[in-house]
Amino acid sequence: MKKEKISIALATYNGAKFLRLQLDSIFQQTYRPLEVIAVDDRSTDGTIEILAEYSRNYPLRYIVNESRLGFVKNFERTLSLCEGTYIALADQDDVWLPKKIETLVSSIGKSSLVCTDVSLIDENGVIFVESLQRKLHIPVPGEKNQFYTLAFLDYIRGCTCLFRRELLLKALPIPDDAMSHDWWLGMWATRMQGIRYLPEALTFYRQQSTNTCGVPRLWRADVLIRYLFSTKRKEIFRQERERIRLYLDTPLFRNNEEKEFLEDLYEHYSSLMHRGLHLKAFRLVFKHRKEIFQNTGKAAMYGYLLGRLI
């Protein structure tokens, strides 16, 4: 039986330090055929030379932008050039397990998108979190409540995703207020054939000081204290509020219940922009707790809820 072609969307910018490790792990995948579409955002560190080298020996096509596009728009351009039946997202500094693509393709079923758990590694390749989902008690929904859970909390890591190319017909172009390309793709997947989540980690997700989108050392007291009293907190919740406004304006909701949920989330994030005890923000999420935290234990659920009080 003929296998479907997979496109790997790789957006690069000054990633020479770890790029070879990532490319090697991609081209050592057990699944074939693969093509890598790389778009570089004007790197100055040797990234382009590495892409040129690999393009001579592997099915890799690369393009260099005429001017800087930024992280999300660079990924958007990369996605628009992919021609495979399925598309996988790749960061420039991660490492993939050899059967990652094979596992994702065999698991996607009729879903629009499949994603997995992820392990975190440091700059030396040492694992410091085996499972991000278990470490943070991230709620992962069943089929029924995917829209609610994902609108509240992004449990999708782009570097773990494989999705059907048809998803791009809905998701492109990616709006400025989407916050991240993978979150936007995931939201549209809930409106199509849904998301399949695998609890296994097939990607080593590298955390380094220069990551555009990274996960800090988790739950450290000094990190939490700086976050609670920083001006960045207000900006994060402003972005979250505008993300929900985008969902209302698109619109991504299907009925009045989903619309009411998004309107409550909008008020939730508006409330969190102000310092103090956030009783209103707590009440608005508590109201929808069954939809958001469908497969989450009570301890984890109330941990998330209480975190919205401060």
3D architecture notes:
The protein has 2 domains: 6-206, Spore Coat Polysaccharide Biosynthesis Protein SpsA, Chain A; 221-307, no CATH class. It is 43% helix and 17% strand. It has 14 helices and 9 strands. The protein has helices spanning 16-27, 47-55, 71-80, 100-107, 132-136, 146-152, 167-171, 181-191, 221-228, 231-249, 256-272, 279-286, 289-292, 298-307, and strands at 6-12, 34-40, 60-64, 86-90, 95-96, 113-121, 127-129, 162-164, 195-206. Strands 1, 2, 3, 4, 5, 6, 7, 8 and 9 form a 9-stranded mixed sheet that branches. Helix 1 packs parallel to helix 2, helix 10 (231-249) runs antiparallel to helix 11 and helix 11 (256-272) packs antiparallel against helix 12 (279-286). The mean pLDDT is 91.
Mean pLDDT: 91
Q: Give the CATH architecture of the largest domain.
A: Alpha-Beta Complex
| Discrete helix count | 14
Q: Characterize the biggest β-sheet.
A: 9 strands, mixed
- CATH topology annotation of the largest domain: Spore Coat Polysaccharide Biosynthesis Protein SpsA, Chain A
Shape call: globular
CATH superfamily membership of the largest domain: Spore Coat Polysaccharide Biosynthesis Protein SpsA, Chain A
